[in-house]
Amino acid sequence: MALSFMTVAELLQWAILRQWGDRRLAQLEQYLLNYLIIPVDQTLYRQWAQVRVERQSAGRAISPQDAWIAATALRHDLPLVTHNIKDFLGISNLRLITP
To answer: How far is Cα 83 from Cα 88, in angstroms, rounded to an integer?
Structure first.
């Protein structure tokens, strides 16, 4: 299983915002070692821009964070597993899965 770097950043932000503390943050970071964390590269930058422009042109804004997550799935030809399918609808060639 793989996670976008942006998903990891959002998980850490959520935990810090909720004041998890050092011990719980360390547990989260340890747990995340079970996943491949997909870093950003030149092709991913371009895919992110494409997602943003495509959604903007369709009149359906997408947050920068969600665009990174969608672009990561597209860049690596992976399905995107999400509980928030509506955030990603209308993105060309994106395969969405709800758990």
So the answer is: 10
